[in-house]
Amino acid sequence: MEQSDISDDLTTILVTEQEIRDKLAELARQIETDYAGKDVLLVGVLKGAVMVMADLARELRIPLSMDWMAVSSYGAGTKSSGVVQIRKDLDADLTGRHVLIVEDIIDSGLTLSWLLENFASRGAASIEVCALLRKPEAAKVHVECKYVGFDIPNDFVVGYGLDFDEKYRNLRDVGVLAPHVYA
Ligand SMILES: O=P(O)(O)OC[C@H]1O[C@H](OP(=O)(O)OP(=O)(O)O)[C@H](O)[C@@H]1O
Ligand code: HPA
């Protein structure tokens, strides 16, 4: 039987593997400058941010620690439920720490706005956000994001950590999922 290729389920490739690599290098240089002399704590938001976190962290040449938070608001569909649930909390105490939240995507902004409020109450010295992708047209709340990779159209995208129904996270590029897959 012929093996199916997950990239066949995309209508368009929006951001290629090479473009992601170049952008993360550019953002890393900015982050290195901004955090010079500070010990930064990267907080990856599971599961989507796994790829960004792994590649961004390896681009950075400053001392850093990594921690993970798992939250979920999407369930199995393509629309945010708006209800954020903690599935795994941080191990680190944020008191006095310089926190950089690492996200794959800001869509409605609901996840990040909830996270920022949650982290603000934990006594961090500073909290900033780095997101590979952002959908300006989908914003339901404004979230301040200091480091943004790419602004993209309001389509459901997959790849490079982003899933539909837990699949497609392993695509190297980011692309628009063909509607026939989820319609
Ligand atoms: O701006 P928003 O509309 O809140 O969407 C962004 C969030 O949605 C995705 O996570 P999801 O809840 O799908 O979990 P996952 O990372 O495990 O896929 C993504 O990783 C962000 O955390
Ligand atoms: O476009 C998206 N794709 C996958 N996961 C997501 N979570 C928020 N937006 C998206």
UniProtKB/TrEMBL annotation:
Its EC number is 2.4.2.8. Its main location: cytoplasm. One of its GO terms (cellular component) is cytosol. InterPro entries: HGPRT, Hxn_phspho_trans, PRTase-like, PRTase_dom. GO terms for biological process: GMP salvage; guanine salvage; hypoxanthine metabolic process; IMP salvage; purine ribonucleoside salvage. It comes from the Bacteria. Pathway: Purine metabolism; IMP biosynthesis via salvage pathway; IMP from hypoxanthine: step 1/1; Purine metabolism; GMP biosynthesis via salvage pathway; GMP from guanine: step 1/1. This is Hypoxanthine phosphoribosyltransferase. It comes from Plantibacter flavus.
